[in-house]
Write a structure and sequence with these properties.
The chain has 139 residues and is mostly helical. It is built from three helices and no strands. The longest helix is centred in the middle third of the chain and has 67 residues, at 26-92. The radius of gyration is 48 Å and the shape is elongated.
Length: 139
């Protein structure tokens, strides 16, 4: 706390109450004692608040670490369950899955073959037309 301005205090008391105090007046000694006590209490309070803030920060860090570990364990458990369920599904329906993949492959290869045949026929017809036009122009 800032030091008290005794001259200002003396002037304020004189203005408000009409009492003239001197710098060595016992009332001013009591004001100084009050100031010293308030400074000591304020310093203790600030120190206690700082200590409590540090303890709160440690507790928050501990909670965060425990929460992170719990979440990580839950994620690992969910992934293990998903992996196990997927493996069981694949093992149970493995033949059906392979059969389905083969059918998709056949359907794609059949449509690709048809597409190339159509492209070949169109290219052949285009060449035939070009040859006929060229023959008419030259003759």
């Amino acid at each position: 706390m800032a030091n008290l301005d005794l001259k200002r205090l003396i002037a304020e008391v004189a203005a408000r109450h009409g009492i003239l105090l001197r710098e060595n007046d016992p009332a001013l000694a009591i004001v100084t004692l009050n100031q010293l006590v308030l400074q000591a209490v304020a310093n203790d309070l600030l120190q206690n608040v700082g200590t409590l803030a540090g303890e709160f920060r440690k507790a928050a860090d501990s909670v965060q670490a425990h929460a992170g570990a719990a979440i990580a364990n839950e994620v690992r458990a969910a992934m293990d369950f998903g992996r196990t369920a997927l493996r069981a599904d694949l093992e149970a329906g493995g033949f059906q899955a392979r059969q389905l993949v083969m059918e998709v492959h056949r359907a794609h290869s059949r449509s690709a073959a048809i597409r190339w045949v159509v492209v070949g026929l169109l290219a052949g017809m285009a060449l035939l037309l070009c040859g006929m036009l060229l023959g008419k122009l030259l003759l």
